[in-house]
Amino acid sequence: MKPLKLSLQAFGPFATTELINFSLLGAHPLFLINGPTGAGKSSILDAICFALYGHTTGAERDPAQMRCDYAQAELLTEVTLDFSLGSKSYRIRRAPTQERPKARGEGSTLQQAEAQLWLLDGTPNGKLMVAKKVNDATAQIETLIGLNVEQFRQVMVLPQGKFRELLMADSKEREKIFGQLFQTQIYKRIEERLKLQAAGIRQAVEQHQNQIKGMLQSAEVNTEAEIDSGIEQLVPQLQAAAQQKQTALAAREVATRSHHDATALVARFEGRAVKQRELQAQQASAPAIEARQNQLDRAASAQQLEPKYQQRQQCHQQLQALSDDRDQCSAILNTAQLGLSAAQGQLKTASQAQAEVEPLQRQQLQLQQYRERIIQLQKAQTETQQRQQVADASKAKLQTQQQALQQQLDQQLVQETQLSELQQTLEALASIQIACNTQQGKLGQRQELETLRHSYKALHHKQQTLQQQYTTQLALTEQARTHARQIELRWHNGQAALLARELLQGQPCPVCGSPDHPAAATGGPELELVSSEQLDAVRLLESQALEQLHAAKQQLDSGARDLADNLTAGQKLADAIGELAGQPLAVLQAEVDQLQQTLATLTHQQQQKKALNQRLDALKPQITELREAIVGAQTQADQDHSHALEARLRATDLQEQLPEAYRDASALERALDEIGARLKHLTQALDNAQNEVSRCRSEVDKYQARLETLSQQQQQCQALSLSAEQAWQDALAASPFASIETFQQACLDEAQQQQFKKEIAAFHSRLNSLLGALALLDKELADQTPPDLAAIAANLQEKSLAFDQCEESWRQLDKRHSQLTAVKSKLQLAHHKNAELEAQFAIFGTLSEVANGQTGDKISLQRFVLSVLLDDVLIQASQRLSLMSKGRYQLVRKADRAKGNKASGLELEVEDGYSGSTRAVATLSGGESFMAALALALGLSDVVQAYAGGIKLDTLFIDEGFGSLDPESLDLAIRTLVDLQASGRTIGIISHVAELKEQLALRLDVISDRQGSHVRTVCG
Fold first, then answer.
1. Which of the four CATH numbers 3.40.50.410, 3.40.50.300, 3.30.110.40, 3.30.1330.30 does domain 1-156+954-1020 have?
2. pLDDT tens digits for 754-771?
3. Are 115 and 139 in contact (CB under 8 A)?
4. What does DSSP assign to residue 498?
5. Fewer Cβ atoms within 10 A, N terminus or C terminus of the chain?
6. In this structure, what are the phi and psi dihedrals at residue 527, rounded to the nearest 5 degrees?
7. CA–CA separation, 114 vs 77, rounded Å?
8. Is 125 helix (H, G, I), strand (E, B) or coil?
């Protein structure tokens, strides 16, 4: 994670919005966050940690307490951070829970915490990943960076007072951090998978043991031997029971057949009795069937008379309908004739009222002319009002301009008086300006000399420091050279000893060629062979020491030149200013301050004079313009007054031309409306009367024609009705029916006739069927007698009961035999499965115990892998710690097992090169702990960066701790950070140490005042 931009608003001591652009510091900067105590240096790290995780770096303050007391109430507390991860960039904004003023009304409301996360994909707003939820944003950040807030504090930020946490962490805590950094969760998953698999096998074994116990309990036995003996005893009993069951079954089948035959014979005797009863009932309904046949025959005779009867009925109905229509038409005709007489009377009345139309039309025309005059009068009155308003406005404008002119004249008089007074005090300005410039030049030279003196002291101190560094590096170089020579000699001795071991007596030596080897090199028992890699390493250390010595010599020479140049420049300046070189700065400064105060006063008065002249020059054209505007305004006012008078006269003439009753427009409109309504009423009355007369006459004509037509149709229908009546009477006389009533009673519809036919046919069919069935049964039962069914049923019940008892006895024995046999088979399978599970547990149980650290040194698989990675980290960390501690300390991993069940394998110890002993890291002093923690963080960063797929630890923030170092250790620590920065890391340091401000050109200066703090970026 690398920060790009940080925006703080009303956060910590920052009252407004502060923007920190880390990109201005370079691609991989080493920079200092500088400022007085309490200014807000640590708040910058708090803001970064809060933006990412919603917590501060120290975790002492709640995010809701980070609001600035100097911020305005309407300004929300929020932090926005742009950062990069590899090739991608992101932006996160986060605001804590806080009080804010209500949008409406007084008081405040609670603003809930919120967070937004964007992927900066090149679009104007980026791709929104989290819209508002705080927990979602934190989860996304933990997934992207690969660290939670506690791990972030320990490996990417060394907060104030907490830099020892990673150094002092136990194996369990360090396992969490390293596992997250190196992505070794796969080994943890292997541990858990083996543990779960072993537990599953163990549980399966226990379940099988319980199943075996359950099987024995279900069989009501205690041992498997009892199952075998029980099966042996049941076999002969089961065979005897089966034989008894078969005998009883045969006897029951004989009794069943006898009962079935007897039941069938009894059923046939009962069936014959039933058929006889049904035949008697069928014969009893014969008279009713005969009556149905007679009714059906009369219906056939009536069906032949049906056409003549229907024709007679139709003629009667048609004649009656025509008679009813004629009576109705006659009534309607009488009503229409009465309506026509009334309509003719209304038409006569409406025609007489038409005499009023012409006078009303003349009156309407005259009133319309009056309306046009009223419109002209209204326009004239409106124009009069407008003219009067224009005249009043012109008069007011004239008065305003006259007042403005008087004010300008008064102002001009006052400014001329002030200008005259200032002119008298500005005569000494030029002489005082010359004296002030001369005195300032002297003061500048004296200050420059003082600066050179201070610079000389600093350069002299630096020269002494460089001389000490050169001396120290010279000693270190000699040590490295001596150590290299010793290692090289040991390597040559070892190579000679190895060569001597391969020599054989009588074979030539590969060095001298002699076949004799009287004094072959042995190296002694204490010989420690040196590898070529160790030899190359010490040679590299020697080369690095020489390079550092050369660099220290160059710095020493450069410091000497700077000191000489400073001394020469100071001497030249002292010769130039002569006696002023010894005069105190305070005296010169007091004289300059007094002259500057006098000069400032006169300069201010000169500026006042200039301003007064400018204002006077500006007033003169304004006064001229106002005088000209007053003349024009007076002329315009006279013209507007004349126009208003003319409009008033025209309105008076128009009003006198109107009758007094119609001068009011509303009264005139009411009269016009009344005349129009009366004319409309008269016209509509005449039209309505004419239309009504036409309609009534049409109705009378229509119904007169209809009445004549109906009369003719009635005469024709009456003749047809008489003919149909005669034909019907002739047919009735020739039929078997005495009257029309007997004919109507004999008539049946088609459905009734079909129903009667079906009933008659069903009767005869059922009668024939019963006669045939009785004849057949009489023939079958001629030689048979009814059996004793009760005795036969009692015999069947006895045989069935005997069979049920035999079958139940056999079933109980068979059930017990099957149960014991099934349990025996299941036990065999269970023993086989249990053997397989025990074999599996022997493998996976052992693997689980080893992988989860339950054997030996209590080191799990993941902790073993992490211990190897920790060794790599400690190699890198020890190199830096050795450099910063001048070769005294190295970090090593504790090899001893922890006491009790506590996790072990990742504890740290420090190896003291002075005493040759190894001790706990807790015994280090404050400065030593800081160096060890810094070295561990840097080593961890190196190793994590080196592993493919590792988390990007390309940023490190250090909050204080440098004050606990002596100057030499501080210089070594800074050199270590410079080397780390050269490898592509971004490093930020918070410190009050003055030497850091001198050595680091890139800074973020935090400036504090009464209104809050501000940040200034210094890029060199």
1. 3.40.50.300
2. 887 888 888 888 888 888
3. no
4. H
5. C
6. -60, 125
7. 11
8. coil
